[in-house]
Amino acid sequence: MKGLRSAGGAEPERPADAVAFHGLSAGYPGRLALRGVTAAFPRGRTTAVLGPNGSGKSTLLGVAAGAIVPLSGSVARAGSTRPAFVVQRSAVADALPITVEETVAMGRWAHRRPWQRLTARDRAVVAECLARMGLEGLADRRLGDLSGGQRQRALVAQGLAQESDLLLLDEPTAGLDLDAQDRISTTLAEACERGTTVVHATHDLADAARADHCLILKDGRVLAQGPPATALTGDTVRESWGLTGLL
Ligand SMILES: Nc1ncnc2c1ncn2[C@@H]1O[C@H](COP(=O)(O)OP(=O)(O)OP(=O)(O)O)[C@@H](O)[C@H]1O
User: Fold this and answer.
1) Ligand 1 center to 2 CA (angstroms)
2) Most CB contacts within 10 A, which of 99, 133, 144, 217?
3) Is there an atom of ligand 1 within 6 Å of 30 CB?
4) Beta strand ranges found along the chain (DSSP E)
5) 27 to each of 35, 66, 74, how far by Cα in Å?
6) Hey, whose CA ends up nearest to atom 2 of ligand 1?
7) pLDDT over 80 at 2, yes or no
């Protein structure tokens, strides 16, 4: 991934896209999960990535995060910081012997080495992110001892603590109670207002309708993309999920 520069070379361009994929194919041994995806995450906006189970949403986020190497095609990343990637809570082992506070503090590893002591500013960021997710009272609890929703909030707090200009989240509000959903939605909207590009995979159509941009996948290909008003129509939803007569 690389930053983009203007033809004149003096000033870096401010490209419209935080990440642009061109003809991207990616997957796992013996399984192609993305097939010729040409799409973009607009810079400083929220993008909702939608599609049925197995359509390639997590894989696309993994490629944007640099965790999955494309098989072919290109990925251009315009930002200057390492992307923050909030995985699904099921991807985190129950037996991890770390506390909630330590989990959130790991977000600061993007700024210093794991063995380096946290600075006063690091500690202030960790405390603020714990508070934003309503986790102050759980800071000393083991991550693996938390409920699913509490654990999810800890992972989102870790992503926020990274203070990246690109925040990628894999179904951050799935299975959460209304208060936790509201906290996360509000926090992500605030991050976007501060200029962060926010991209989240979701199965929640109402959530997606509030995003600035939608990207709908089906069988590893782009079915539709654009503002919700044009991309998230009855036709695209029916076609993507193969629904008959429900919408
Ligand atoms: N670690 C893996 N090894 C092999 N195949 C995988 C792996 N992870 C995902 N896949 C396969 O890649 C394809 C895309 O999966 P992906 O997780 O990207 O879909 P998704 O849209 O995020 O699904 P969901 O809504 O269920 O989270 C699926 O066919 C899936 O079975």
Assistant:
1) 26
2) 217
3) no
4) 17-28, 31-42, 46-50, 72-77, 84-86, 166-170, 197-201, 213-218, 221-226
5) 9, 13, 14
6) 28
7) no
